[in-house]
């Protein structure tokens, strides 16, 4: 009999919220909210993101990262702070570290219908792998829809109107990121594939990576492995949502560790979707989350200002 690792994060079924009756919806809101309050991470099934779309995008992403470096570099977008196109190996680091993570990535941003919008910046089209952007854009939309449903449940958990987040995430600055961690060919100086960090955005949706390594830090400071099963996607709270809820919902520290030496030759591919609001959203602390034992922890700031600040800290914006 196969031995399965004990689960470190709860598992919830989003379809009970999107298609369920009142009691099922209520139960889902409670399960999701308490996972975000206590752990900051949750596994989600019934998310409606087609498995074949995920699989096809993985294949296209692998083909992109297999291209020669000088070809990939054609897709680096000057002045985009890594928010569009390719970012080469060794550019990004965690905010408390000066050592670059062992990864390269490609980011697909929002495609606005209104091309005159000042926030609009076109995504580069990869001519060598034409289906990469086509599939990436479809996956982006599927993630957006699932993320919107999760935020509706969170709004209800926080005692807000169900559609509270809708206005802020419609045409929001979300990012679909394909991350490639190449094989490790020599003893790393001190870097791991992704040093411990918290995400910047509202929530992150992550489809199962091609290899393990994702760990979260629990309240006791111990590192716990997250092993997604089957078609489960992993969702975690980002700093924007933690800030907006005055630390009531938790942006948990996580990292991607290097594999055992005998697996160094195996690359790792992972596809997170960072759900960001529109830049003008105010991240001011929600009054309902301020209590005598949880005084207001943050000053007012907009999502755009906060993103700007954080991109500088991680070395993507000069």
UniProtKB/TrEMBL annotation:
Sequence ranges assigned to domain Fe2OG dioxygenase in this UniProt record: 171-277
Functional pathway: Alkene biosynthesis; ethylene biosynthesis via 2-oxoglutarate
BP terms from Gene Ontology: ethylene biosynthetic process
Keyword set, alphabetical order: Ethylene biosynthesis, Iron, Metal-binding, Oxidoreductase
Catalytic activity: 2-oxoglutarate + O2 + 2 H(+) = ethene + 3 CO2 + H2O; L-arginine + 2-oxoglutarate + O2 = guanidine + L-glutamate 5-semialdehyde + succinate + CO2
EC number of this enzyme: 1.13.12.19, 1.14.20.7
Gene3D superfamilies noted in UniProt: B-lactam Antibiotic, Isopenicillin N Synthase, Chain (2.60.120.330)
Alphabetized GO MF terms: 2-oxoglutarate oxygenase/decarboxylase (ethylene-forming) activity; metal ion binding
Signal peptide as annotated in the record: none
Family statement: Belongs to the iron/ascorbate-dependent oxidoreductase family.
Identification of the protein by name: 2-oxoglutarate-dependent ethylene/succinate-forming enzyme
